[in-house]
Amino acid sequence: MNRTQEIMELEGFKTLTPIQEATLNRKDRSRDFIGISSTGSGKSHAFFMTIFDLIDETKDQVQAVISVPTRELAYQLNERCKKLAEHFGIRVRLCVGGTEKKEGGLTPQIVIGTPGRMKDLFLDDKTLRLDTAKIMVIDEADMTMEFGFLEDVDAILSHMKSDVTVMVFSATIPEALQPFLKKYLNSPEIVTIDKDTDFQANVKHYLVMAKHKSYKEKVLDILPAIQPYVCLVFANSNKEAAEIAREMRENGYDLVELHGDLEPRERNKAIRTITSQKKSYIVASDIASRGIDLEGVTHVISCGFPKDLKFYMHRAGRTGRAGRDGLAIAIAKEKDMPAVENLKRQGIEFITMDVKNNEWVQQKDRADRKAPNNSPMANEIHKVLHRKKTKVKPNYKKKQKKQVERLAHRMKRQKIQDDIRRQKRERAKAKQREKNSKSE
């Protein structure tokens, strides 16, 4: 039995996922590789299996480096890797902010860490040699670039051996990432897993209007109507995530929270709890969401929408995996409606719902309703937001936003002018009544 088969047996895998098959069935495993696949598609084990097949446990040196953009993802990968490493007698070290820079004992054979901390240890402090590695994995490459960590990865790779095998895994490959890939990857094998496999059609999308309530209040309305195995609640900021978590705890929900305001020790504990699947509810900030990868997610609740709507797709894509049904619930306010319309144009079919007496009740879709009022200006804004799908032009979102802002400004000015005229009429009537009373 080879190590890949042992890992499958240890993890209880019956078959390999598409990205795992593509990674492991390569004729030349020393060739550079780009795997385009979403979080949760099994890519972590794809590179774990590749790495464990290469490691020589008798050599006292770093043989594989795994770079990830967030501490959350580094903690989670480290927990998974340690389980496998202990089985094979291989040493693993975690290198992230908040951990000790110097560690005693033998040199690790696998290093997992964030680019900044690994660069510090390797190039600045010179306490950890990474240039002995035979393979370097860059996980979540698009996110690494978005967060500005590509320079640190560049610095690390520029000091490694020229024959190091580079494996890049990412949900997308943005154009801005291409120069980096051309610099360090030599004729890479590129595998793209079909997006239909990544973003399953068996995920329902519910749109729930918050109306006069806050996001956290609406979350409490929704929770009694669902019976999740694991429910992820996503917020757009650390502060909002902490507030939602506090509100849920006060109402008796046992949960784990994960966001940037936690102390390193708290974050580490949260990752371990998430990985062990001890809690049914996880409240996370938007940035932390890309570092979460676990099975059994049945429900996802989004409190509002992130600025970059790709993150909404990543959130909703946590559920409905491996042929299971999933439910993505988006709580929206009026300010969120442009994001909702944008996602509809991208093919997301929202069902407008609400919860009454702890049960789901379907509501009339907002697009089928009349404009908020019958004034010509309100109808103009309604037409702009619900214009029929046409050929999309560059910067159409900005132009649409400016157009709506101009119309809204005109509507506001019109309302003020109407109020002034009404007040003038009321003052004139009051004066007339006063004159009439005096003449009597």
TrEMBL record:
Family, per entry: Belongs to the DEAD box helicase family.
Annotated segments matching region Disordered: 385-440
GO CC aspect terms: cytosol
Domain Helicase C-terminal: 218-367
Residue runs in coiled coils: none
Biased composition (Basic residues): 385-401
The protein's name: DEAD/DEAH box helicase
Tree of life domain: Bacteria
Domain Helicase ATP-binding residue range list: 24-191
GO-annotated molecular function: ATP binding; hydrolase activity; nucleic acid binding; RNA helicase activity
Residue spans of biased composition, Basic and acidic residues class: 429-440
Family annotation (CDD domains): DEADc, SF2_C_DEAD
Keyword annotations of the record: ATP-binding, Helicase, Hydrolase, Nucleotide-binding
